[in-house]
Structure prediction request, 371 residues.
Amino acid sequence: MLHNLREIAPTYYLAAPRSWDNLLTMVQVRMEDSTRLKKALYDHFMQLAITCERLLLDGRQPSAGQRLQRRIGEWLVYGPIKDQLGLTRLSHAFTGGEAIGEDTFVFYRALGVQLRQLYGQTESSAFNAMQEPSEVQLHTVGRPLPGVEVRISDSGEILIRSGSVFQGYHRNEEATKAALEDGWLHTGDAGYLEPDGHLVVLGRSPRWCAPRRASASIPNYIENRLKFSPYVKDVAVLGKGRERLSAIVCIDKEPVGHWAELRGISYMSYADLSQKAEVIELVKAAVQRVNATLPEGLKLRHFVSLHKEFDADDGEITRTRKLRRNVVEERYAPIIDAIYAGRPEVAMKAQIVYETGEVGVTERVLRVVEI
Prediction:
C-alpha cells in the first residue's frame, strides 16, 4: 500500500485510523534511525507545527514568527515527509470507522494534511456526519449530512433516520428488529449533540467502562492514547465493574524489533520478543506516559504484554482493526483473572488460526506488570 500510495499520490484519501497510525509509526521509526541533525530538525519543526495547529484548533492564531518558521519547516521537514508518504497532492483526507487518537490527528494536520473526521456505518450507506474544512474540532465528527436526522436516546445511544438507512439484515429478522425501530437506526454507538449541531461519538455503547470508584470512561480513549506509541500496536483496556483499570497490550513487532536490534537484544519470535524484560520496560514507559495525562481514577494499574497480536482471523479484531472486546475478554479470561487476583504471572494457552486454515496452539508464561 505504501508503495502504491507514493506512486499514485492521490488527491482524495479515506482510511481507518489504524492506517494513519501505521504511516505515523513508519515516520517515527525512520527518524529514530536517522542522523542526529535530521532528528533535531524533525523534533524542532514538528513540535512547532503541532503547537501552531493546536492554537488554530482552539480558534487562535500563531505568531508571525511561528508562521515564518512553519514555512521554513515546509521546505526542510514537512514537504519531504509528505513526499515520502505520497501525500503531496492530497486535498481531501478523511478518517473514519473508529475513533482516531488525538495526537495522530493533530500530527497530520500539523504536517499540512487537512485531515477531517467523518462518521458512518454500513447500515446507513456509509456516511452520516462529516467535518467541514473550516469547522474541524478534535472531539466531534462534524454535523449530520443533509437529509440525515440524528437524535440521542435516553440511554445515550445515537439514533439515525434517513433515506440511506438499510431495509434490514439478510434473512435475519431478529437482528433487523433490534437495529430498526420506527425508521430509526440504532447505531450501537454512544454520543451526544453539541449546541452548535456537531455530533460527538464516544464509542460503542457496550464499551462503557466504569471502575467502581472512578468516573466513567470510554476504553477507546485510553487505548488510542497508548497506540500513539510506535511500539504499541493494539490494546484492550479492562476494568468494567472493578476497582481499577488494567490492559492487555500487543507490541508492534517491526518497530520493537528494530529497537531491540539497535540494542543488541536477540529474540526468536514475536512471543519471545514480547516477554523480554527490556521490552516490558519499554511498554511500561509508554503506559506511564499515558497515565500522566489521566485523572487518578482512570490510570492503568497493571498490564500484560501479550505473546501474540490480536488477529482478525482469530476473531479478536475486525478487518479494520476494531477491537472485539467480548471475544478478547472471553478468550483471555485467565489473564484478566490473574491481574485482578494479584498474581505476578499467568500461564496462557492461545489458539492460532493460520492463513492456511490450520489451527495451532501456543503456550507462554506471561508476566503481570504493576504500575
User: Anything to note?
Assistant: Residues 81 and 295 are 35 Å apart (CA to CA). The radius of gyration is 22 Å. Residues 2-113 form one domain. The chain has a mean pLDDT of 89.
